[in-house]
Each structure stands twice: as structure tokens, then as C-alpha cells.
Amino acid sequence: MNILPISGSEIVVRKLPFMTAAVLLAAAMLASGCQQPPQTSYSRDIQPLLKSHCQDCHVPGKPGFESSGLDVSTHAALMKGGKYGPLVMPGNALASTLNALVEGRAHPSLRMPHGRGKLNDEDIKKLKDWVDQGAKNN
Fold first, then answer.
1. Which of 72, 94, 131, 135 has the smallest count of CB within 10 Å of its CB?
2. Cα angle vertex 95, ends 94, 98, to 5°?
């Protein structure tokens, strides 16, 4: 703090530029730490992925549906699951069968998409993020 005498009285002059910079820096640090990752959208991110990699088999009348009972043509059908129960555990990709199957955490004979190449890392991350964010129909 600097004190400047003026006409017998003292005026306290604060280091305003320093304080302003410190406040702005603190605000920026708080804001960057509080930002949420972008929301993964079912309609924008997940539905097109399922359509291109899963709907060839997992819709009524197709072999994947016949063997598993899983229909991926709509959000409601996906969330319903199949013959063996729910496939998606909203909020928990680690416990979701869907994620285990596409990430290769299940037996190799069950890896999805079946008989095709593995999903790329970006698509796997989209599915994981969507499930972890609650698997919403957004």
C-alpha cells in the first residue's frame, strides 16, 4: 500500500491494477475448474452411431434381435434392454453391458459390433460419456 500526503492529510492509494489482475485471474481459475464437459446428445451423437454400427442386426426381424431381444432403433427400445435385462445403466458406463460389449471388456465372442471391426475410440468415448451423463433422450 502506498500512502501519499496531500495538504496535511493522507490518502491511501491502492494498487488497483494488481488487485484487478488478481481478481480476474482467480475468477478465470474458478471458471475453468467448474466447467462441465459438453453434453453428449442421443439424437446428435448416439442415434447415428447406433444406426451405422448396430441397426443392421439389432432391430426386429434381424439376427441380433432374434438372439438377444435387443432393439436399438429408438431410445426407449435401447433403454428397455433385451432378453438378458437392461443394457444401459444411466450414470454408470462401467456397469453398463453396452459399454462392456463395445469396449471389449466382455468375452471376445460377445464383442460388438459382432463380426465387424471394433468401434473407433471417439465413438466408444461418446457412448461412455452419454451413459455417464445419464443416457438421456436429448
1. 94
2. 85
pTM of the predicted protein model: 0.74
In terms of domains, do 66 and 20 share one?
Answer: no
pLDDT at residue 92 in the model: 98
* 137 domain residue, yes or no: no
Residue 132 dihedral angles phi and psi, to the nearest 5°: -60, -30
| Tens digits of residue pLDDT in 8-48 | 544 444 554 655 555 554 555 555 555 666 899 999 999 99
Range of the domain at 22: 1-35
Query: Looking at the 3D structure of the chain, how many domains does it have?
Result: 2
d(CA 5, CA 9): 6
Alpha helices in 1-138 (DSSP H): 16-34, 47-53, 63-68, 75-80, 97-103, 121-132
**pLDDT for the residue 76:** 98
Let me know whether 70 and 96 are in one domain: yes
